[in-house]
Design a protein that fits this description.
Blueprint lengths: L9 H22 L7 H21 L2 H7 L2 H22 L2 H11 L4 H30 L2 H21 L8 H87 L4 H30 L1 H6 L1 H16 L2 E5 L9 H22 L3 E9 L2 E8 L15 H12 L3 E6 L5 E8 L2
Length: about 425
């Protein structure tokens, strides 16, 4: 049979069925030692007990499963199919003894008893082979399942060869019973096989979807990492790079003036020291902002309030703060976006806008979140793409797009700048 991976639950189910057969075969063996002892019945019952015990051991041996691989289930199904057929064949040899005893007491009932024995035989085979048929239909292809059922019919044909001498029932009835049982197995196997194929197709689609989702998640993670690197670059550009570039210019001036104008060189050196201290302070603040500690510890509203107050004091700005008492039901990504946009906007105002006043507002209007940051500074016109002045603004637009929001920046020379972020349905 085709090598298909064995699902986890099939072997335990198969083993449970064989255990039930083992219990029933044990009762049958005990019952065969009654008043009317028939050797073939005792042999058939004993063979069933031995077969079930061996099959239970086989299905419970992990080493064999590892050794045989995908053939493990096929071997078990072959044993579970041939065993009952052999036991049923042995049982047939005892039917003449029963019919002889019935013929002495009620000869007219011999045909009826023969039909009853035929029915019992067919029902017994249906019960013992039903689970193997289901397992074959579930595990293997429709073609393989059909071959399996036709093989059962071939075994019935061999059994028919010994039937006429065992039970006085019309050969046509025996053939019809075998065909009926095979048709029943084919119908059940077909239904189970179609359900299995549908289930396997669904599992394959789910697996493919999971792989696509994993790939998509990996792509998003890479995109988020790239954007975070860009943000780190902006942070370093606005703090450490500015400080170092200014310090380098001052030190070059000190070197040039050290011999000719020592007083001026010392003054520039003092300025360089002040620039260095201020740069160190800004770098520490940038590192603290990168950690986003206030947002995680205090929540969005309080974190925005503290950041706005700190920025206004640092840059000497008059602050107009309009914040709600709390802002609930916001996704963490949205909160992070608003916080980072506010931080970038306040930094730009303090370092570039030359503003005296700043207004910060956060509100929820008709299921729409709105964040506003406005100053009265010098404003700007849109410079060409790639300018350093636009580096931070570009990052804000990227953050807004990631969370599905809309960011607008309106600015005119000497009329200030307005930054507005809106997000609907959050």
């Amino acid at each position: 049979m085709k090598r298909w991976a064995i699902p986890t639950g099939i072997v335990p189910l198969f083993r449970f069925f064989i255990f039930v057969r083992f219990i029933l075969a044990g009762f049958e063996l005990l019952n065969s030692f009654g008043n009317m002892r028939i050797f073939s019945f005792e042999t058939a019952a004993l063979a069933a007990v031995i077969e079930c015990a061996l099959l239970l051991g086989y299905l419970s041996w992990p080493w064999l499963k590892e050794r045989l691989g995908n053939k493990f289930l096929a071997v078990g199904l072959a044993i579970a199919t041939l065993g009952p057929w052999m036991e049923n064949l042995l049982g047939l040899q005892g039917y003449p003894a029963i019919l002889n005893q019935v013929s002495r007491q009620a000869p007219f009932f011999v045909p009826e008893i023969g039909r009853v024995l035929l029915m019992v035989t067919q029902l017994q085979l249906i019960f013992t082979l039903f689970i193997p048929v289901i397992l074959v239909g579930w595990q293997y292809s429709l073609r393989q399942m059909t071959i399996y059922c036709l093989s059962l019919l071939a075994l019935d044909a061999l059994q028919i060869l010994v039937w006429p001498g065992s039970v006085p029932v019309s050969l046509l009835v025996v053939v019809a019973a075998a065909i009926f049982r095979t048709s029943l197995f084919l119908m059940v196997g077909f239904v189970v096989n179609r359900l299995s194929a549908e289930q396997k197709q669904q599992n394959a689609l789910l697996l493919q979807a999971n792989r696509q989702m994993s790939h998509y998640a990996g792509t998003l993670e890479q995109l988020a990492t790239s954007r975070e690197r860009n943000r780190l670059a902006r942070e370093l550009h606005d703090t450490l790079a500015h400080t170092l570039s200014g310090l380098a210019v001052n030190l070059e001036a000190v070197t040039a003036l050290w011999e000719t104008d020592p007083a001026q060189a010392r003054e520039i050196l003092k300025q360089s020291l002040a620039v260095t201290r201020n740069g160190l302070l800004e770098t520490r603040r940038a590192i603290q902002a990168l950690r986003a500690g206030p947002l995680e510890d205090l929540g969005l509203v309080i974190a925005l309030k503290q950041m706005a107050i700190s920025s206004s004091e640092r840059y000497g700005l008059k602050l107009d703060l309009d914040l709600p008492e709390k802002m609930e039901n916001l996704d963490p990504e949205v909160e992070q976006c608003i916080y980072r946009v506010a931080a970038e906007g306040l930094r730009n105002i303090g370092q570039h806008a030359r503003a005296s006043q700043v207004r910060l507002r956060l509100a929820r209007l008709d299921e729409q979140v709105e964040f506003l940051l406005k100053d009265d500074g010098r404003g700007f016109t849109s410079p060409p793409a790639g300018k350093n002045e636009q580096f931070g603004i570009q990052g804000m637009f990227e953050r807004a797009a990631v969370v599905g929001g809309v960011l607008t920046v309106n600015s005119l020379p000497e009329q200030g700048t307005e930054l507005r972020f809106t997000l609907a349905g959050k």
